[in-house]
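Lay summary. Proteins are chains of building blocks that fold into shapes, and those shapes determine what they do. In this project we predict the shape from the chain. Here is one chain we studied, written as its sequence of building blocks.
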Amino acid sequence: MESVVVQLERYDGNPIIGPIAEHSFEATNTSNPGATIYNDKVHILYRAGSDQKRWETTKEYPVTYVGLAISSDGFHVDERRDEPILGPEPRDGFGEHGIQDTRVAKIGGTYYLTSATVSRWGDRVILHKTTDFETFERVGFIQPEFEMRTAGIFPQKFGDDYCFLLRYAPNLWISRTPDFKTWHSTKRIFDIKLHSWYGMKLGMSCTPIRQDDAWLLFWHGRDDRAPNKYRLGVMWLDLDDPATILRVQEEPILEPEAEYEISGGLYPYCCYACGAVEKDGRYLVYYGAADHVACVASVPVEQCVLRNQ
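And here is the predicted shape, written in a compact code that computers can read:
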């Protein structure tokens, strides 16, 4: 049987979340959204760029926060918090310039939030958890000895272990931990491909989605021929041993083409996803466009089943 090529379809109403000038914490951009379902509603956790510039730096990037929007149907925002749910760490430490790019995994009744922090010492990964999206417990930094911004957890434990996808640049790695402090079974599982759409670096985009016969992973790649361009891809991992890749679709599933993806933001020609949910027979993939606005694209679930590949 000929394989079905997975392709995302943009929502006609994109972008679904944009900056609000009156809100200091999200006055300049609202991008790179993670997503999960809580109380039957899609909770969208997005990078919010404030009207503050980073401390003691010449870069013109803003201090970042995590904002929260809620949608009943996954497309239209019904509620949007007036204040951020997460903010920068204290000055003079990792995260002093902000927190962003949150990926959410539900394990039992707990939602784990894996985010990137920004500081003068580079990026680090930090973990929070919540049961109600009202209060958030800071668990701590994940492998702070490594400069890294792309990471997330599988939405189940493997024995006694949590399983993480990580990016020790430029490639995709996997590692396990029982306590978020000690690590084992660390392995590089997917490499860049020179002179391609993922020739400079790559990493996970969305929290893996469990299917009947595989983990579905939406991922991103940065082109080494056009270094500012980010596209989205898809692959399937073994259910019991997610370090084993069963299939990678070589063609990207979304690339920057719409006007809001190629201009108007801090990073033109960029599609960068952090969250996906299953709703009404489709996967809804939430992504940032040009590091400026939050968007959604979708694909039928059946199109993404491994047996069709």
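What the prediction tells us: The first strand starts at residue 9 and ends at 10.
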